[in-house]
Amino acid sequence: MSNEKRTSADFFKQVFGRTVTVKLHNRTEYIGVLAALDGNMNLVLEQCEEYLEQKLINKYGQILLRGNNVLYISAKFNQKYQQEAGI
Amino acid sequence: MTTILPLGLLDKAISSRVWILMKDDREFEGTLRGFDDFFNMVLENVIELDNGKKSKLESILLNGTQICLIVPGGEIR
């Protein structure tokens, strides 16, 4: 893993088109393909599933999420890491 | 005596583990890869602690608005 500083702008570039998990402050999670992202963390997710407490509650073709609600945006780059993470 | 600014301290913590406490008793521990003026942070190999439940995340952009405390070199207990 490189040691260069990665700011949010770099994270954005890496994460476009990937499947991300977005967790909101109210603990709702959205898993979908990242179509758009701006500096306010406003997002457009496609083929998105909405989870509350690990339970699927909704599916959407496309959603616009307002950035003020976002706690974090999580991306999976390495399939193998996911399997080893367990928990 | 040299002045250390808060973001300067954070800059020194890059590439090391940091422990982050949020306003609502959530905790994150991860390797700090970068941050910005708003304390949005890029973290890797993250452990999230929420209501006693731990989960692992590979790489996240953490929203800075709810961050309360950052401990360089710290860990979730």
Automatic annotation (TrEMBL), chain A:
<dbReference type="GO" id="GO:0005681">
    <property type="term" value="C:spliceosomal complex"/>
</dbReference>
<keyword id="KW-0694">RNA-binding</keyword>
<dbReference type="GO" id="GO:0000932">
    <property type="term" value="C:P-body"/>
</dbReference>
<keyword id="KW-0507">mRNA processing</keyword>
<keyword id="KW-0508">mRNA splicing</keyword>
<dbReference type="InterPro" id="IPR016487">
    <property type="entry name" value="Lsm6/sSmF"/>
</dbReference>
<keyword id="KW-0963">Cytoplasm</keyword>
<dbReference type="GO" id="GO:0046540">
    <property type="term" value="C:U4/U6 x U5 tri-snRNP complex"/>
</dbReference>
<dbReference type="GO" id="GO:0003723">
    <property type="term" value="F:RNA binding"/>
</dbReference>
<dbReference type="GO" id="GO:0000398">
    <property type="term" value="P:mRNA splicing, via spliceosome"/>
</dbReference>
<dbReference type="GO" id="GO:0005732">
    <property type="term" value="C:sno(s)RNA-containing ribonucleoprotein complex"/>
</dbReference>
<keyword id="KW-0687">Ribonucleoprotein</keyword>
<comment type="similarity">
    <text>Belongs to the snRNP Sm proteins family. SmF/LSm6 subfamily.</text>
</comment>
<dbReference type="GO" id="GO:0030490">
    <property type="term" value="P:maturation of SSU-rRNA"/>
</dbReference>
<dbReference type="Pfam" id="PF01423">
    <property type="entry name" value="LSM"/>
</dbReference>
<keyword id="KW-0539">Nucleus</keyword>
<feature type="domain" description="Sm">
    <location>
        <begin position="7"/>
        <end position="79"/>
    </location>
</feature>
<keyword id="KW-0698">rRNA processing</keyword>
<dbReference type="GO" id="GO:0008033">
    <property type="term" value="P:tRNA processing"/>
</dbReference>
<keyword id="KW-0747">Spliceosome</keyword>
<dbReference type="GO" id="GO:0005688">
    <property type="term" value="C:U6 snRNP"/>
</dbReference>
<protein>
    <recommendedName>
        <fullName>Sm domain-containing protein</fullName>
    </recommendedName>
</protein>
TrEMBL record, chain B:
<comment type="similarity">
    <text>Belongs to the snRNP Sm proteins family.</text>
</comment>
<keyword id="KW-0819">tRNA processing</keyword>
<keyword id="KW-0507">mRNA processing</keyword>
<dbReference type="InterPro" id="IPR047575">
    <property type="entry name" value="Sm"/>
</dbReference>
<dbReference type="GO" id="GO:0008033">
    <property type="term" value="P:tRNA processing"/>
</dbReference>
<keyword id="KW-0698">rRNA processing</keyword>
<keyword id="KW-0694">RNA-binding</keyword>
<dbReference type="InterPro" id="IPR001163">
    <property type="entry name" value="Sm_dom_euk/arc"/>
</dbReference>
<dbReference type="Pfam" id="PF01423">
    <property type="entry name" value="LSM"/>
</dbReference>
<protein>
    <recommendedName>
        <fullName>U6 snRNA-associated Sm-like protein LSm5</fullName>
    </recommendedName>
</protein>
<dbReference type="GO" id="GO:0046540">
    <property type="term" value="C:U4/U6 x U5 tri-snRNP complex"/>
</dbReference>
<dbReference type="GO" id="GO:1990726">
    <property type="term" value="C:Lsm1-7-Pat1 complex"/>
</dbReference>
<keyword id="KW-0539">Nucleus</keyword>
<dbReference type="GO" id="GO:0005688">
    <property type="term" value="C:U6 snRNP"/>
</dbReference>
<comment type="function">
    <text>Plays a role in U6 snRNP assembly and function. Binds to the 3' end of U6 snRNA.</text>
</comment>
<comment type="subunit">
    <text>LSm subunits form a heteromer with a doughnut shape.</text>
</comment>
<dbReference type="InterPro" id="IPR033871">
    <property type="entry name" value="LSm5"/>
</dbReference>
<dbReference type="GO" id="GO:0006364">
    <property type="term" value="P:rRNA processing"/>
</dbReference>
<feature type="domain" description="Sm">
    <location>
        <begin position="5"/>
        <end position="76"/>
    </location>
</feature>
<keyword id="KW-0747">Spliceosome</keyword>
<keyword id="KW-0508">mRNA splicing</keyword>
<dbReference type="GO" id="GO:0000398">
    <property type="term" value="P:mRNA splicing, via spliceosome"/>
</dbReference>
